[in-house]
Amino acid sequence: MAEATGSLFDAANLVGGTAFFKEMNMSSTQASKLALVTGGSRGIGRATSYELARQGYIVAVHYRADRAAAEQTLAGIRELGGRGLAIQADLNYPDGVTALFDALDRAVAEQNLPATLDVLVNNAGVADGGTLDDTSIELFDRQFTLNVKAVFFTTQRAVKRMPRGGRIVNLSSVLSSRVFEAGGDFSAISAYAASKAAVDTLTRHWAVELGPRGIVVNAVAPGPVDTDMNASWLRTDSGRVTMTSASPLGRVGTPDDIAGVIGFLVSPASQWTTGQVIDASGGYRL
Known about the structure:
It is globular and about 50 Å long. Strands 3-2-1-4-5-6-7 form a 7-stranded parallel sheet, sandwiched between helices. By secondary structure, it is an alpha/beta fold. Helix 3 crosses helix 10. The longest helix is centred in the middle third of the chain and has 23 residues, at 137-159. It contains 10 helices and 7 strands. The model is unreliable at 1-29 (pLDDT under 50). The chain has a single domain (19-280), classed as Rossmann fold. This is 3-ketoacyl-ACP reductase. Residues 33-223 form the Ketoreductase domain. Belongs to the short-chain dehydrogenases/reductases (SDR) family. One of its GO terms (molecular function) is oxidoreductase activity, acting on CH-OH group of donors.
């Protein structure tokens, strides 16, 4: 199970230098842009933070509780020659989004960072298995709180500081649109699947609502990805064989696979792509 970051302000530490932007041949305009990745300290979030750093963004890495993981991500950004900052907030709680943006605002003011937010990646999320019979109200609410409510209100705050040309990428799942046989790999996960279907719907509505403001909104729907979140079943021999055989490409996805798609969606090349849910499952069960 993986989830995103926390509730109280934790000093947002800026790291890195300027050499990276010259090495990557980024313009000074792009090099001053700020991106926020929720749940950015591990797995897909960490890979996405690195991808954005490669593109020249200053990356705000949000985390819930694992400061060490966030520091490791910042170290990786620094090794790339990029710049990053860590912000702690618990999005499971009502004041989590406020805490997140209070921390971001403080970092902007103290460290002379851009006041605008050019990219938001809503990556933080949680997946809890359970059949209709055994899913408790608590498990249902936990998934919808983090996977839907936090996404909605994080985006609400983000767009108030997002200029024309801004990018929003939501993390969905292949399970939002595919139902598998009873007793199969993903049959007992309907609450999670429904929460990701809600993300797909928000993506399409926001693309229409924010289009006149020049903001592009898309979602990425991964299939099985080898992360700590999936380790309990995907890193077993049987789980690996099952998931590998389900893809025409004959392997399981990696965080870098998903980060590459997100990288396209935040790049200038995606300016005519909006309201889309991009399948990044490796052709899972075509």
